[in-house]
Write the structure tokens for this entry.
Amino acid sequence: MTSHSNSPQAGHSITNGNQAVEGTEAVVTIGPIAHGGHFVARHDGRVIFVRHAIPGETVRVRLTDSGESSRFWRADVVEVLEASPDRVPHFWKAADSVASWKRGAPPVGGAELGHISLARQRELKADVLAEQLKRLAGLELATEVEAVGENHDDGLGWRTRASFAVTSKGRLGMHAHRSDMVLPIKEMPLALQGLNDLRLWDLDLSGIARVEVAVPANGSRPLVLLAPEEGTSPKRLHSIASQLPHDISVAGFDPVKGEVQQLRGRTWVQESAAGHDYRVTGDGFWQIHKDAPNTLVGAVTDYLSRGGYLQPGAAVADLYAGAGLFTAPLADAVGVTGTVLSVEGSPGTSRDARKNLHGAPQVEIVQGRVERVLHQRARSFDSLVLDPPRAGAGKVVVKQLMSTGPRAIAYVSCDPASFARDLGYFHQGGWRLESLRAFDLYPNTHHLETVGLIVPAA
């Protein structure tokens, strides 16, 4: 068995039978990108999913997951032997795989494509989307992944929200990919400058398990959420809060129960999009990219309006509605003679939607699971907006949606695999994909967002 200090060269076996140990190194040639930010390589007949690579490169990798019973192994690049012309210096030392492993530790997650030029990143994301559509929906379609916003040249400074762990020494940190290891950080280049200006990495966060930060793109008051470790006293939470600037709201929260406890200021933030202001409580969902809300609202309303599916007097629904990002512009479009059903499962976020839409009598807000709400009584709609979590809507919900008789569905998705799977369910029910756009709302990561217009085939 090969040790880390005696790495095999290309063509040499890294296994003893079917076994290999984590930390073993090998030289491989990188194949295509796979869903999830990995690149496919093969060694000794074994598939290895490699992070921090580019197709066509020859690299030395370090195995990070090589269980005997695993169908495939996972690895990080530790040395680039033959580089792609699309490789660029990584903008973030903590997320740079080669530099991190030279220091003896893995990189933090969250910027796994930061070594690739932005243009090539978008091409690779388009490849993933096309592959998922073909494999799961039987659809041959190439879709450009569009850059968004005015300052998209470097793919930095776009995150309005970030989640952090805390090291054993009480310092702000982030997890390595698929690991419990927490690595300290001193910057977050993907985030807005306002988040970096908080300098949370300078604080002693002992007693805190997790930190969530929301810095609205409209410049309104940021919110820091502190999730305490078991046994941490309220006095300790207030002590940490006192170290933050006085114009910052601070709250304690329980991520399991979804409970938020005010420490200072507000327990919510104010966001703005499409001519509306939105209250979003605690760690309630809001699009992360500063330009995402307006981009997605524009894409959805353009699809529905141009197709004649969103007119004054229409009956529409916003499913998995969150705090009402799409509900408000839908209400504007249908007017007081129309109706909008807004369904959200999270009680806290649904309460936000009630506050945000209290002045729109044409809106009915229902808190509950989408499948249960649709099952409770028969409903019919002219059009629907569907923005499910990463897992997608699923077969049951897709069937229910088709039975409500809409003329069109605008499906917003942050995961090409679940979107393609659900699109396959729509195809089975006699529906088709009319149009599709894809947006690079997560530069320097493998994630992307799609907006699809789905209509009855007939």
Notes: The radius of gyration is 24 Å.
